[in-house]
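Hi everyone, sorry if this is the wrong subforum. Our group has a chain we'd like a structural model of before ordering constructs, and none of us has done structure prediction before. Sequence below.
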Amino acid sequence: MTYEEYDKVLSILDKLISTVAQIYHLEVLKKKIFYDELIDTIILLPELHTIKIYSLSLCHSRHLSFEELRRFSQIETTCYITKVYLEVMDNIENVYFIMKLCPYMEYLKVDSIEDMDIEVFLRNIFNKINHDRNEYLHLLCFHVSGADDQVIKKLEKMINVEKLIIEYTIKCILENIYLQWK
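Answer:
Right subforum, don't worry. Here is the predicted structure as tokens:
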């Protein structure tokens, strides 16, 4: 689908959705959604609380215009998405973008962390949270193939030694690691 066709579909959806229903949960079925497409979608659906996307891509994304950058900064203060599900993260910048786009996000689930060490992933996330003073994100879930008690102990040691967070619980259920903090 070309950008012109995509813009046309968004325009039609905008007219239909605003008159028919409010949408609180959205699953984007497209395998890769570009940053600008996600911004446009969120602008069209201001009542969203939950969004599920397969993966994000900055590549092949058209450059954001001044108007879109202005709208992006408006989204940061009006976007109330609290739960984000990202199936494939191939770049930590994708998570940073989501954190900026959804400043009220409380829960982030990442099913696949492509080619990234889990300790590096956590360290980056907590550094970003502390740097941006994000007070809402308190639950992180990520899939780690072969995750077991040894992986949990290793992560606990890293978190405690580096004092990334103070009060937290961490558990592994079916190779999904759940990390919750206050």
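For your construct planning: The beta strands are 25-27, 33-34, 50-53, 56-57, 83-89, 107-113, 139-143, 168-173, 176-181. The chain has one domain: 3-181.
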